[in-house]
Amino acid sequence: MSEAAPLLEVEDIAKHYPVRKGLLRARRIGTVRAVDGVSFVLRRGETLALVGESGCGKSTTARLVMRLIEPSAGRIRFDGQDVTEARGGALRQLRRRMQIVFQDPYASLNPRLAVGDAIAEPMAVHGIGTGTERRARVQELLRLVGLQPFHAGRYPHEFSGGQRQRIGIARALSVRPELLVCDEPVSALDVSIQAQVVNLLRDLQVRFGLSYLLIAHDLAVVKHAADRIAVMYLGRIVETADKRALFAAPRHPYTRALLAAVPRPDPALRGRVRPIGGDPPSPLDPPPGCHFHTRCPHAEPVCAREDPPLRPMATNGGAGHLAACHLAERLPPVPPVAAEAISPTAARRLALFTGARAAPEG
Ligand code: SF4
């Protein structure tokens, strides 16, 4: 996987929002740093998951990649082309090659548009095919995502949540993209349906060689859907690694705290890592030094003074395991999160993701 060519290169991207006070003569009183210097590479055929608590900047990063919002700084390259500088026809072409699947499939579908028309709409926008060709493609896409051709004439309210997400995926695939940005694609769905949609995404990835930028907060989803993981905190990546390295030996205390939130029934494992406490600080006024020091159980005086850079870990994970923590190499090891180490409910949930493909829900 690591040998594949880069498809998406994000370099030091930032999104800052000015905060103003006053009505007539509003003055700037601060800056919200929603995304603050994020860099990563996504290779062809790979799934990279951006993970973190709500408000950490992962969805903003997804929208920056799609150029749905303009970056304050940084560069985004797609297949070598500069997305940040693209205009007019060049930007339209790039947008055809990158599609997004939204969290709420109902909100992302027009309730007054028949499903067939909703799936065909991106093809019409990009001038792809004749009307007959588009209708044939809609039938093909409906079958691909586990629905039936006759569903084309129905409306979004006639479908379940999982079926609506399948429709959203079919719509995204209609223009034959190379990259799918999946923004919390299953978090609004029931657990058993989540597994079906994740498995569908994996099948489609293998079949069409797709690359996924997966935005998620659910580690069960990430563990089975991602190749690499980047953990975000307060607008920055604080740790990134191959998923096996990250789950086996997380180096950043925030990653460890996220993993500790996975329920474990074994009393011997409980309490070895404390779940994260408190709320994230405001991105309007982040703490000095390491932004995590106000919640970190390992913080030392240096942490409040010096901002730790994202640096390679010599201790484990091989190439590509980076963490932004002064004490990363000195922290005690934690028990790896394995399917057998989590609660029966969570284990059943993982089994859904790892087991045989289930039939589409009715
Ligand atoms: Fe915790 Fe210090 Fe590491 Fe930040 S640098 S994560 S405060 S130990």
From TrEMBL:
GO cellular component terms, semicolon-separated: plasma membrane
Localization (cell): Cell inner membrane
Regions that span the bilayer: none
Residue stretches making up the ABC transporter domain: 8-259
Keyword Cell membrane carried by entry: no
CDD domains, sorted: ABC_NikE_OppD_transporters (cd03257)
Lipid bilayer topology: Peripheral membrane protein
GO molecular function (one): ATP hydrolysis activity
SMART domains to which the protein is assigned, alphabetical: AAA (SM00382)
Listed GO biological process terms: peptide transport; transmembrane transport
UniProt-listed SUPFAM superfamilies: P-loop containing nucleoside triphosphate hydrolases
Classification via Pfam families: ABC_tran, oligo_HPY
ATP-binding as UniProt keyword: yes
Keyword vocabulary terms for this entry: ATP-binding, Nucleotide-binding, Transport
Family of this protein: Belongs to the ABC transporter superfamily.
Protein name: Oligopeptide transport ATP-binding protein OppF
Organism placement in taxonomy: Bacteria, Pseudomonadati, Pseudomonadota, Alphaproteobacteria, Acetobacterales
